[in-house]
Design brief:
The chain has 78 residues and is an all-alpha fold. It has a domain at 21-71: Arc Repressor Mutant, subunit A (Orthogonal Bundle), CATH 1.10.10. It has 3 helices and no strands. The protein has helices at 22-39, 44-56, 59-71. α1 (22-39) runs antiparallel to α2 (44-56). The longest helix is centred in the middle third of the chain and has 18 residues, at 22-39. The mean pLDDT is 87. One of its GO terms (cellular component) is respiratory chain complex IV. Component of the cytochrome c oxidase, the last enzyme in the mitochondrial electron transport chain which drives oxidative phosphorylation. Keywords: Disulfide bond, Mitochondrion.
Length: 78
């Protein structure tokens, strides 16, 4: 019998109480990259933000933002 898979999503964040979670997605993406810059990607704190944005954001958005960061055209402040 295969092992049970535990599925998780981002926890509730009171800064984003509405059903539209676009801002939560974007803010988690920014928080992860800011955290990574200071503490490194493998920090537990950074992993929390990574899990949040991976859970909340459509993959196409993340790919677009990653490409923009690589090209130096990303609009967010990291």
């Amino acid at each position: 019998m295969p092992a049970a898979v535990e599925l998780k999503t981002a926890p509730f964040d009171p800064r984003f109480p509405n059903t539209n979670q676009t801002r939560y997605c974007y803010q988690s993406y920014l928080d992860f990259h800011r955290c990574s810059k200071v503490k490194g990607e493998n920090s537990e704190t950074c992993k929390y933000f990574k899990n949040c944005f991976q859970s909340m954001c459509p993959n196409a958005w993340v790919e677009k933002w990653d490409n923009q960061r690589a090209e130096g055209t990303f609009a967010g402040r990291i």
